[in-house]
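Hey, weird one. I pasted the FadR family transcriptional regulator sequence into the form twice and got a warning about non-standard characters only the second time. First submission, copied straight from the form history:
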Amino acid sequence: MLVAQRIVADINRRGNQVGERLPPERAMLEQYQVGRGTLRESLRYLELQGVISLRPGPGGGPVVERPDSSSLSAALSLLLQFADASHRAIADARATVETLTARLAAEQMSDDALAELRESVETMHEQMDDELVFLEENRRFHVLIAHSSGNPVFGYLVEALLDILAASALGIEFPGRRREEVYGAHTTICAAIAAHDGDAAARAMADHIDEYVRYAQEKYPEVLDAPITWTA
């Protein structure tokens, strides 16, 4: 673990970018003064965290990557499983966190992010009959807002919560009428954010999450009460 932390510190110090190779094994062995087994375990740990990828063959070796929310969602789902938490806990957390992120995004979302948010709403509408696109755009919409809150903790937390509560994995289906309702909610939230109206954005997001919970409770009551299981 200490070697892994030193490797990450050196990545930051050097300013390595995604796709750049790290020094070869022999150089790292000399630099960190550890055995080959210890170095390789450190690199494998960093690979599991999404910090690097280990490419085989000539010219391969450790390559810098950008970590995503998958490690956080895996760790969080493991903690929640041992806490005997249900998926309802995730829905409740979303209601609190995303209401706040919508308010913050309305105050400071960049023009580029707002353009992408509008594009997500339009894409969902244009490809309403494609369930895969619908689910992808639904996630993208919420992630964009969370990461536009100005607080990266909220961004990655919302991503992790959405990963755990992924509708397709839980078996929740969205027929045409429900998709139209989601699209309408996204349109309302997007308009409030574009108008820089934090109160309206927060109310619209709260209503949107509440509608989702009511729908799931009515159609799939067993899903919300199902215990969370660890996914890696």
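That's the output from the first submission. The warning seems to come from a hidden character in my clipboard, not from the data itself. The domain at 2-64 is CATH 1.10.10.10 (Arc Repressor Mutant, subunit A).
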